């Protein structure tokens, strides 16, 4: 058997990565050692942090070296096993890398979790029923401490994390407004993803539209972008509000120009006795099963809809990653690798 993989060929420069930053290689799949199992990769996920794996490790991983397989999470099927904890036919998700097959030894570094058999497609193990969905769930309910009757503002609302927040807010008895870059994405938010309203941050005055929807201020701001939009939201928070710091994709872009945005309204956190808090999703690892079961049930009941944006073929991985920085993705960006 042969394995195709994308390996690092050059460090990225500029906002977007280039196809020449990677090289497609093919290798023989070696025999398994005791304790190992072989995964056939079905879907791979992309996230903005992957670009920084290529540069400096993003502060959480060792920097990739030239010739290393690109890192990334995937979901796949165990097709051969010499590990008693994983049997042939198991569906697992974890650190698969940008490749068609993955040999894993089951150690904690690979973060391999068995995917429960359920009605939802296995792709959801990388989205609404995986780390992306868990980020939405724990970020909104535990970090944001959302309560019934409150309101939520969400930036990058059609992204993988943001696309879940509208319905999660509705389930809690709250209402959410989302920010998106096009009128088409704004319609997606209100027609499918549970948002009661949307703001086109490219064409509308954000501050005025927030006042329209939330004249008394924001209870929870779920921030996926940082920068100027975070600053505007801070100017609109009400007393005892909670700002959830989940992502900062605008800072990634600004760092290219060496002039990152400086917050002007940070003082509002103290003035309103509010909370501004970041989090690391794996701090909630002991509760992943509970979150997965609950959200799977909500999907079956029709209370939680999800949005996936799927390309096909391993060669599409660089394009899929760039779509995040180009604001082209609608929902969780994935690439289908095999059946």
How are the SSEs placed, and which strands pair?
Blueprint lengths: L1 E7 L13 E7 L8 E9 L4 H4 L19 E9 L9 E5 L5 E4 L8 E2 L16 H13 L7 E4 L7 H10 L3 E6 L2 H9 L5 E4 L5 H8 L4 E6 L3 H8 L2 E9 L3 H6 L12 H5 L3 E4 L9 H13 L7 E5 L4 H9 L6 E5 L3
Parallel strand pairs: 8-9, 8-11, 9-10, 11-12, 12-13, 14-15
Antiparallel strand pairs: 1-2, 3-4, 3-6, 3-15, 4-5, 5-7
Helix pairs in contact: 2-3, 2-9
Calculate the terminal CA-CA distance, rounded to whole Å.
17 Å
Enumerate the spans where pLDDT stays under 50 for 5 or more consecutive residues: none
Largest sheet, strands/sense/barrel: 7 strands, mixed
* Global shape: globular
Enumerate how many helices there are, as a single number.
10
Give the amount of beta strand, in percent: 25-35%
Rg measurement, Å: 20 Å
Fraction of residues in helix: 25-40%
Structural class: alpha/beta
What is the average of the pLDDT values?
Answer: 93
For the secondary structure, the number of strands is 15
SSE order, one letter for each helix or strand: EEEHEEEEHEHEHEHEHEHHEHEHE
Summarize the structure in words.
The chain has 339 residues and is α/β, with parallel strands linked by helices. The protein has 10 helices and 15 strands.
TL;DR?
This protein is α/β, with parallel strands linked by helices and about 350 residues long.
């Amino acid at each position: 058997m042969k394995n195709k993989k994308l390996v690092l060929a050059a460090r990225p420069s500029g906002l977007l990565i280039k196809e020449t930053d990677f090289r497609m290689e093919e290798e023989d799949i070696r025999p398994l050692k005791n304790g190992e199992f072989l995964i056939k990769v079905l879907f791979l996920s992309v996230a903005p942090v992957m670009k920084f794996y290529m540069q400096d490790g993003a502060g959480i991983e060792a920097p990739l070296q030239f010739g290393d397989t690109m890192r990334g999470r995937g979901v796949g099927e165990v097709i051969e096993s010499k590990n008693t904890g994983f049997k042939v036919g198991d569906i697992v998700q974890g650190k698969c890398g940008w490749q068609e097959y993955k040999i894993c030894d089951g150690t904690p570094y690979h973060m391999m979790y068995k995917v429960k058999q359920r009605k939802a497609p296995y792709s959801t193990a990388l989205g609404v029923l995986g780390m992306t969905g868990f980020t939405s769930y724990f970020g909104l309910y535990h970090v944001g401490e959302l309560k019934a009757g409150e309101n939520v503002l969400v930036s990058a609302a059609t992204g993988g994390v943001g696309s879940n927040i509208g319905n999660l807010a509705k389930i809690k008895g709250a209402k959410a407004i989302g920010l998106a870059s096009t009128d088409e994405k704004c319609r997606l938010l209100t027609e499918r993803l549970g948002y009661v309203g949307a703001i086109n941050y490219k064409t509308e005055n954000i501050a005025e539209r927030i006042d329209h929807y939330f004249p008394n201020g924001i209870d929870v701001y779920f921030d996926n972008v940082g920068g100027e939009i975070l600053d505007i939201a801070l100017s609109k928070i009400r007393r005892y509000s909670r700002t959830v710091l989940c992502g900062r994709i605008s800072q990634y872009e600004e760092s290219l120009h060496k002039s990152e945005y400086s917050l002007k309204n940070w003082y509002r956190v103290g003035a309103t006795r509010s909370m501004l808090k970041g989090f690391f999703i794996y701090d909630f690892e002991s509760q992943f099963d509970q979150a997965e079961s609950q959200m799977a049930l909500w999907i079956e009941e029709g209370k939680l809809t999800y949005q996936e944006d799927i390309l096909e073929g391993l060669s599409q991985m660089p394009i899929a990653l760039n779509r995040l920085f180009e604001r082209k993705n609608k929902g969780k960006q994935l690439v289908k690798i095999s059946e």
